[in-house]
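Our preliminary data section would be incomplete without showing what the modeling component actually yields. Below, a chain of 294 amino acids is followed by its predicted structure, encoded as tokens that our downstream tools consume directly.
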Amino acid sequence: MQLNEIRKEKERQFTFKNIAPLKKMIDNLPKFKVNSVEFNNTIEIDGEFDEELIYQTARNLMPWRKGPFRIGKTFIDSEWQSFIKYNLLEKHINLENKIVADVGCNNGYYMFRMLSQNPQKVVGFDPMVLFKLQFDFINHFVESEKLHYELLGVEHLPLYEHKFDTIFCLGVLYHRSDPVTMLKQLKASLTEGGEAIIDTFIIESDEEIALCPNRYAKMRNVYFIPSIPTLKNWAEIAKFKEFEVLEIKPTDLNEQRKTDWIEGESLNNFLNEDGSKTIEGYPPPIRAYIKLKT
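Predicted structure:
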């Protein structure tokens, strides 16, 4: 199937009865006067707004997983304090005039933050239509022509119209049943000398092993949690020339927690009482942040 055909098939989701009213709500937002946009830990937008309309629109787009955002008086306190991850990575990247992809971009929080480094273009890839609507809601105020959102997944990267200088792929690898193929897809989509920034769950071991859980932290779609040596082997099989560990960090209850802007459970529900293990008895979430170069 050609890329444009895939796009049309994905966009049909906007006609679904639970999605169509939300899209109409976003499409019918009035043009507001925006006085300032600040890409800080909280993406902050000030202007002359209908505060009740902004609040109700944001509530209708729940759950908000990535953020936070503030539009006027409405503070969207997302489940993830995403600035913790972005600030960790920011010192390791230079996006000046780069063509960038953010694979698994959710609502585009990282994409908005990237604008402060003056990239040439940022393309977000995520097949979830609710996240696309959240992005459209925020970008209604930001109005950045550098940002583009595709309802596509990592498997569509090699079909894309152009390659990328930098690809972010954060929190995706462990959700793929064939992680080596995913790394090959990233490699095939990079320019010569390009780099991929990934983060993934790991297990702490010097051996070339991986955990293959039936369920991990209540997630059934976690297939492989590698050790660092295993992850390095995967990258070498995918023909990356350089492998650099930027940081290894546990996920804690400050970074991921339940708020009034999500539905259901969060990290504290996925761990045992003292947080020493997942409820299934596995080691708690630890993430490695990795830079791969072609």
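Residues 129-142 form the longest helix (14 residues). DSSP finds nine helices and 13 strands in the chain. Preliminary results of this kind motivate Aim 1 of the renewal.
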